[in-house]
Amino acid sequence: MGLMHADGADPCLPAGRKVGIRLSVFSRCAYHFDMYRILGIDPGLNITGYAAVDFGRREPVIIEAGTIQTDAKADLAGRIAQIHTDLTEIIAELKPDLAAVEKLYAHYRHPRTSILMGHARGVILLACSVAGVAVRDLPATTIKRSLTGNGHASKRQVQRSIQAVCKLKELPQPPDVADALAIALCAGKTVHELH
Fold it and tell me: Packing angle between helix 140-148 and helix 155-165, nearest 10 degrees?
């Protein structure tokens, strides 16, 4: 079956929650863990990826994965409010035990990107805190290394690795969904190693 848009929405359209993967259209991943649900979140002001993954006695199962897309023409306050509102709904609906969020990093060539990502990340942390969901911060290099073996893997390499590990027929699109899945799988692996 592979990646499908359960709500029939075009993932390229701005504004709102877009579900890319639901349990009914997903095959199981190839890891083993104890029982808990992790919400992986790839913060972004334009597109925030999310993925709820259950880790149990068998292989992890993706419950839902998708994006929160803001209207690029809206003001900053409106975009941040939309991320908060949509993520609050996602948390209430999916009831994660833990949220895993990519750490903020700064690149000297693109400081504005870090500032914008910081706005999105801040409201994500707020939504998790208000909902009483613990947060694990993970560096991008740790996430990529956990999945691909290369801490500096490209977005395409992460997509291909997620496709292989999760046995998807198609690459998860947009890349933010693959990133959120990678974050959840990495967090699940590190939580399991602590037990």
Answer: 50
Which tokens in the block code for residue 113? 């990107």
Residue range 140-188, pLDDT digits in tens: 999 999 888 888 888 898 899 999 988 889 999 999 999 999 999 999 9
Question: Exposure pattern of 132-167 as b/e (b: 16+ CB <10 Å)?
Answer: eeebbebebebbbebbbeeeebeeebbbbbbbebbe
pTM above 0.85, yes or no: no
Q: Domains along the chain? A: 16-194 (3.30.420.10)
What are the catalytic residues?
Answer: 42, 102, 176
- What is residue 125's three-state secondary structure? helix
Helix H or strand E encompassing 52: strand 47-55
